[in-house]
């Protein structure tokens, strides 16, 4: 985590997009939403990928030109799905004026929509095991030459050719799709990538060879340009497990030397394991990672309902193993229905899931646009703005100090935050996946005689703390409760 992020007490990140946002009009819409974000106590926003992709309906991961932020007439229009470069820069300025840091989503693993095809040697590999060759080395024709005719060399005159890539997925000559490894001097799959599928360097489109000196130089130059041009405060690295980790380490070190307090977080999409640990070690603990395991556990808990043992929700998670390096989240643009990693936390469990990431001690929580404002498109899903606003305010008011867990039962997990000198209020959070329940909990002798209320307003009766410092707290069926002393303004 960047130094700045570590210093922000109870910071909250906001993922500022979902997959099915309409094409066009995004930046003005987000600017209108800034007051919501400020009121909620959000201190950083992760914006969608703005580099020119294959067209105005591309969410941004089919990236074409790193230097075209919606400035050049390329791929059909000047703007990206979200808008023009001018609008992008305007939104970043407005967020900065509101005291919110901005993270750019950067796609460095691959490139799509080349300008010309080229002929070169390649070998087809087994898609399930990329170390296994199927067939002989032969000449193919593939889309690997990028010269950006609409940009005409502005900012960088670098042209991409077949030898800057490790693999492609289509041979124009034979008309066949597959996974083709580029063959040539010093060519081959990257070493420091996920070992899934034998070697998971190749994900999609034309896979960038981060080992090639010209590529390294060009990407370093681009990072300088991107940060200078936009003023963003951090990068969210897309598809990190498909990019050579030694390149990532060098790339981070290069940027960090020039830019103080630059924040890095990456999408390393697999359950936490020794491999994730190794990745963090090699990237010198400079890059935080999304807590994918916690996301899977939240999905399992939401699906399992009463039959899931809620006390196990943090088992195997990144936030448990490396609390200072976990970006915790509930849902994202890839997990939402209809998307590649579809694994959505259902609505009934949204209060539980967000309480788990927002009201506990560890992790840098990321609130998803789709959970907050809702998801548009053919199968719209309503947002939970009112509830999430309350939970974020509770985070800012009461989520301080020591954390005492209450492992009540298979269906009830609770914890007390004991507050600090600066934020003395205590709070008891209870999550319930079963029937309504009431339990006596010790809060503290100094709390005797105080009245506690459920700040979510679900439990209407207040609770009197007795002489022993205990209170009798209720949580509704399949619901949550956040008990704190009455009379506290929550903001
Ligand atoms: Ca790759």
The gross shape turns out to be: elongated
Q: Report the CATH topology name of the largest domain.
A: TIM Barrel
DSSP, total strands: 27
Could you tell me the strand content as a percent range? 25-35%
What's the architecture of the largest domain, going by CATH? Alpha-Beta Barrel
Kindly describe this structure.
Helices cover 24% and strands 26% of the residues. It folds into three domains: 282 residues, TIM Barrel; 98 residues, Elongation Factor Tu (Ef-tu), domain 3, CATH 2.40.30; 83 residues, Immunoglobulin-like (Sandwich), CATH 2.60.40.1180. The chain contains eleven helices and 27 strands. The structure holds calcium ion. Calcium ion binds next to loops.
Give descriptors for this structure.
491 residues, TIM Barrel, 3 domains, 8-stranded parallel β-barrel, 7-stranded antiparallel sheet, 27 strands, binds calcium ion
Sum this structure up briefly.
The protein is α/β, with parallel strands linked by helices and 491 residues long.
Per-chain topology:
Blueprint: H1 3-7, E1 13-15, H2 26-40, E2 44-46, E3 52-53, E4 63-65, H3 85-97, E5 101-106, E6 110-111, E7 116-126, E8 129-133, E9 138-145, E10 165-171, E11 176-182, E12 206-208, H4 213-230, E13 234-237, H5 245-258, E14 263-266, H6 274-282, E15 288-290, H7 292-304, H8 318-321, E16 326-329, H9 350-358, E17 364-368, H10 369-372, E18 374-375, E19 381-382, H11 385-398, E20 403-409, E21 412-417, E22 427-432, E23 437-442, E24 451-454, E25 463-464, E26 470-475, E27 480-485
Parallel strand pairs: 1-2, 1-17, 2-5, 5-13, 13-14, 14-15, 15-16, 16-17
Antiparallel strand pairs: 3-4, 6-12, 7-8, 7-9, 7-11, 10-11, 10-12, 18-19, 20-21, 21-22, 22-27, 23-26, 24-25, 24-27
Helix pairs in contact: 2-3, 4-5, 9-11
The protein binds calcium ion.
Calcium ion binds at residues 109, 190, 201, 203, 207, 242-243.
